[in-house]
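Consortium newsletter contribution from the modelling node. Members have asked for a concrete example of what our holo predictions look like. Here is one, prepared for the zinc ion complex that several groups have been discussing at recent meetings.
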Amino acid sequence: MKAVVLENFGDERNLRFVEDFPKPQIKEDEVLIRVRAVALNHLDIWVRMGALAVKPELPHILGSDVSGVVEEVGSLVKNVKVGDEVVVMPGLSCGVCYECQSGRDNLCKDYDILGLKSKGGYAQYVKVPARNVLLKPKNLSFEEACSYPLTFLTVWNALVRKAQIKPHSKVLIWAGSSGVGVAGIQIAKLFGAFVITTVGSEEKAKRCMKLGADVVIDHYGDDVVKKVRELFKEGVDVVMDHVGEKTFWKSVECLKKGGKLVFFGTTTGSKAEIDIRYVFVREIELLGTYMGPRADLFKITELFERGLLKPVVDKVLDLSEAQEAHRYLENSKHFGKVVLRAP
Ligand code: ZN
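And here is the predicted structure:
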């Protein structure tokens, strides 16, 4: 099959488009999917660079967010059939341990993400366990459908489960134009929250307002903490931080007493300094999150089907242009998701 293969860790030039990679063989409880589209995530970049504690065996295939058509099903598979149009739940777990059985599969001892250790969707075919396949919302194209699972699931876990946002919550979302940013704005607005977000350009500011943000701050030109404190003297209830080192402490400073910081990304590095006393005296909650429970993706998918959440696809390229897609994402030129179309 055609695929983009990672042969060595490093920059995007290590991604090579090949035509003769072996097609995956499924087991009795697995599904083979003919990939139609695969969305990029920052995770792809970290895996590509070999920057994570967990590294895949090389040669590897990246890609967590997949949409496509069921090509083949194992003998035990009942939830989908050949020809079904589907999206993939990228979180892979054992399905039988205590955490999996308790609906906290993202804490499974064997947790993996498609494209992290397991071979992902930068290819014509990908295999996943049957329980990781959901029917695609009919109103979305394949390019749109692959754009939401990982980011929306992560953000749902952070804002809804951990931060427990409510209609009166004041929420700050860093980098509103990123994949998780556009998810954050929409999910927070869905719950009736007041949303402040940050962007790096006028054009992106307009698009965030269109998505529902109430206030947009320029994270290059403005002092974000000062701006937030001008809006709300006491600070905000919730901050969602996926930027990491550069913003972590600013996030804490934007919070009111008893506020919650939900965080899960490290685009700018992972060593943040914390004044512990400031955190405990103000009873600030630091809530790390990692992906989210599988069940929530069913809820999210239904919200897309009902038009209450909207996919934001910035750019669609061919799979053979994976190198260019990575450069585009790394240069932060995007608004929403970058998608590769399978050949
Ligand atoms: Zn498990």
